[in-house]
Specification:
- 38% of the residues lie in helices and 15% in strands.
- It is an alpha/beta fold.
- The radius of gyration is 25 Å and the shape is globular.
- The relative contact order is 0.10.
- About 1% of the residues have low confidence.
C-alpha cells in the first residue's frame, strides 16, 4: 500500500520531522501520545498535518501507557513521543510494561544534536542503549532519507512474532535538517503472518482433550490481542468444555457464558487434569503451574506464537507453536462432531457446585446494607449503573482484584488493568487511549476507569487531559483512605494529637481520610460527585454519564477486605 500523496511529499524538499510524519502515516499509525518540548515539537505538528491524532499528555509515563494500549485495542501500534534524556527515562515505565504485556508500542525520542555529542549536550544520554533492554528494535536512522526504512522496521518488529516495543532515536539536527537526495519509498508493513500448527500437533491436542476427565481451557490476553474471539467461542460451544479467563482474557468468551468458571477459579485450577493455555503464560498470575494451585500430574497443551515460551515452568504435554486463531480454527475442524462434555458429568457437577457457592457468598456481600460500604456493596452499585458494553479500566490492589470478580466483561479487549507487570499508574493513560480509539474508530463506547485511591495518585493530572479533549470517561475512585487498607478520621486525629511526628505514627499504608477526589475535576471546569451509599453511587453515576468527563468519589470502609481466598495471589505479607 503506497499513498500517492505521501509518495509526492517524499519527492519534495522536506525536513526530517515531515519525513518522519509521512512515514508514520504510510505505516498506518493513527495515534501519538506525548509530552512535547525541544526538540520534538515539530514532530507533533508534522504528524497532525498528516492526519495523525496527537494527544498531549501531562507525563511521559502516562503517555507511554496510553500508546501501548492502542496496540492492544487495534491492529496497529500506538506511538509515544518524548523529549530527550529525562523524557525517555520517564517513558521507560511504559516500555517495560508493554514488553511484559506483549503489546506493540513504538517510542520516538528526540536527542542531542549530533555535533554536540560527547561534549555534555543538552539532555545528552545514550538513548538507543538505554532503551534496548526493553525493545525488540532500538536504533537511530543513519540519515534523513533512511527514516522511512527505520519506521517500517519498527512497525514490523513490534507486530511480528511476539508483540513488543521499538525505539527510534531522532537527533535534533535530523529533525530540523532537510533531505538532499530522493527517498526510496517503503511500502506499508502487511499484517503479521498467522502460522498454523502441524497436523500431528492438532491431532495430539484433540486426543489429549477428548481423553481427559477434567479438562479446562484458560483464555489469556494473548487470545484477545490476536482477535481469536470468534474461533474460541465456536470451540467453547462445540466442545462443552469449561473455561477460565485471565484478568485481561475476560470477554474473549463472555464472562456470563454458562461455561465460564471464573467463580470457581481455585477449584478449576487445582483439579484439572488437562489444561489448554490459549495466550496465557504460566507466570505468577497462574502460579507458575505448580502445586498446590495445580495438580501435580496436570498435562498442559500450550499454544504460543513464541517458541521460546513453550515449556516455561512446566513441560508441555503438547507444545503448540502457532497463532492462536489459526490453531483454534484447526481444532474446530478436527474436533469430533459427537464429542461434547456432558453438563451432568462429575467434572461439571464439581465446578457447578463451587460456582454456585462462591456466587452466593459474593451476592450476600454485595447485598449487605452496612455503612460504610464494603468493596462488594460499592461494586454492586457500580455494576448496576454502567453500560454493559463499557470499556473497563481498573487498577489498585483490592479495587482491581474485587472489581474483576464483580464487573463482567462480555466483549473482547474491553478490560485493561495492571497486567503482567502489575503496574500501578496505568489507569488514566489506558482510559484516555481507550476513549480516543473508541472515538476515532466510531465505537461509541463509554470508558469506565475504576481506580483505587492510591492508584489514582500516580497519574491524576491526566484528568485534565481527558477534560481538554472532551473524552467520554467516567473516573470512579474507590476511596478507602489507604493502600490495601486505610485509616479512619478518628485514627488520624489520634495519631496527629499533640503535633506528633506523623512520619513516625501513621501506618505506611495510610492515606488522608476524607479526601475528596471528585474535587480534582473542578479545577479544570468539570463536575464531580461523591457517594457514601449504594443509592448515592447509582445517582452519581447516572449523572456522571450525562457528561463527557467526570470523577465519582466512592467512600468505603477503610478496614474492608476481600472475602477469604483459598489461595493468595502472592506471598502473603505479615501485616
Amino acid at each position: 500500500i503506497i499513498d500517492k500523496h505521501i509518495l509526492h511529499l517524499f519527492n519534495s524538499q522536506m525536513e526530517g520531522s515531515a519525513v518522519l510524519a509521512a512515514a508514520l502515516a504510510q505505516q498506518g499509525i493513527k495515534y501519538i501520545f506525548g509530552v512535547v518540548g525541544i526538540p520534538v515539537i515539530e514532530l507533533a505538528i508534522a504528524a497532525q498535518r498528516e492526519g495523525i491524532h496527537y494527544i498531549g499528555m501531562r507525563n511521559e509515563q502516562a503517555a507511554s501507557y496510553a500508546a501501548s494500549a492502542v496496540g492492544y485495542l487495534t491492529d496497529r501500534p500506538g506511538v509515544c513521543l518524548v523529549v530527550s534524556g529525562p523524557g525517555l527515562v520517564h517513558a521507560l515505565a511504559g516500555m517495560a510494561n508493554a514488553k511484559e504485556n506483549c503489546w506493540p508500542l513504538i517510542v520516538i525520542g528526540g536527542s542531542t544534536d549530533t555535533y554536540q555529542e560527547i561534549q555534555g549536550g543538552f539532555q545528552e544520554m545514550p538513548q538507543v542503549e538505554v532503551a534496548r533492554p526493553y525493545c525488540k528494535f532500538s536504533a537511530r536512522p543513519s540519515d534523513i532519507t533512511r527514516i522511512p526504512d527505520y519506521v517500517e522496521k519498527a512497525v514490523r518488529s513490534v507486530l511480528y512474532g511476539r508483540p513488543g516495543v521499538a525505539y527510534l532515536d531522532l537527533p535534533a539536527d535530523m529533525i530540523t535538517g532537510t533531505m538532499t537526495t530522493p527517498i526510496v519509498q517503503v511500502p506499508r508493513c502487511p499484517p503479521p503472518p498467522r502460522p498454523a500448527a502441524a497436523p500431528e500437533t492438532v491431532q495430539a491436542a484433540v486426543k489429549l482433550l477428548t481423553q481427559a476427565k477434567r479438562p479446562l481451557l484458560i483464555i489469556g490476553k494473548g487470545a484477545a490481542s490476536c482477535h481469536a474471539e470468534a474461533a474460541l467461542r465456536t470451540f467453547v460451544d462445540k466442545s462443552g468444555l469449561p473455561f477460565l479467563p485471565t484478568p485481561m482474557g475476560k470477554g474473549v468468551v463472555p464472562d456470563e457464558h454458562a461455561q465460564c468458571v471464573g467463580a470457581a477459579r481455585s477449584t478449576a485450577l487445582k483439579s484439572a487434569d488437562v489444561i489448554v493455555l490459549f495466550g496465557a503464560r504460566l507466570n505468577w498470575i497462574l502460579h507458575f503451574g505448580k502445586p498446590p494451585r495445580f495438580a501435580p500430574d496436570v498435562k498442559i497443551i500450550q499454544v504460543d506464537i513464541a517458541p521460546e515460551e513453550l515449556h516455561t515452568n512446566l513441560p508441555a504435554a503438547v507444545p503448540v507453536h502457532a497463532h492462536i486463531t489459526s490453531f483454534v480454527e484447526q481444532l474446530n475442524a478436527a474436533w469430533p462432531a459427537a464429542q461434547k462434555l456432558c453438563p451432568k458429568s462429575p467434572w461439571w457437577t464439581l465446578l457447578g457446585e463451587k460456582v454456585a457457592d462462591n456466587t452466593k457468598t459474593s451476592q450476600e456481600a454485595m447485598a449487605a446494607a452496612d455503612l460504610p460500604m464494603s468493596y462488594y456493596s460499592a461494586f454492586a452499585a457500580i455494576k448496576q449503573s454502567i453500560p454493559s458494553d463499557s470499556i473497563i479500566v481498573s487498577e489498585g490492589a483490592n479495587t482491581m482484584d474485587i472489581g474483576r470478580t464483580v464487573l463482567p466483561n462480555n466483549l473482547p479487549r474491553h478490560r485493561l488493568d495492571a497486567g503482567t507487570f502489575g503496574t500501578m499508574g496505568v489507569g488514566p493513560g489506558f482510559a484516555i487511549a481507550a476513549a480516543v480509539v473508541a472515538r476515532g474508530e466510531g465505537w461509541k463506547k463509554r470508558v469506565i476507569c475504576v481506580e483505587g485511591d492510591s492508584a489514582i495518585g500516580f497519574s491524576a493530572m491526566e484528568i485534565e487531559t481527558a477534560v481538554r479533549y472532551r473524552l467520554p470517561i467516567t473516573f470512579i475512585v474507590v476511596n478507602n483512605n489507604g493502600i490495601y487498607s486505610g485509616i479512619d478520621a478518628a485514627y488520624y486525629a489520634e495519631a496527629a494529637a499533640g503535633r506528633a511526628d506523623l512520619t513516625l505514627s501513621l501506618p505506611p499504608t495510610s492515606l488522608l481520610p476524607g479526601a475528596r477526589y471528585d474535587k480534582l475535576i473542578e479545577a479544570f471546569g468539570g463536575k464531580g460527585f461523591s457517594a457514601k451509599t449504594q443509592e448515592e453511587v447509582r445517582v452519581a453515576l447516572k449523572s456522571a454519564q450525562q457528561l463527557d468527563v467526570s470523577v465519582v468519589n466512592v467512600e468505603i470502609d477503610p478496614f474492608g477486605q476481600r472475602k477469604e481466598q483459598e489461595f493468595q495471589w502472592l506471598t502473603k505479607a505479615k501485616l
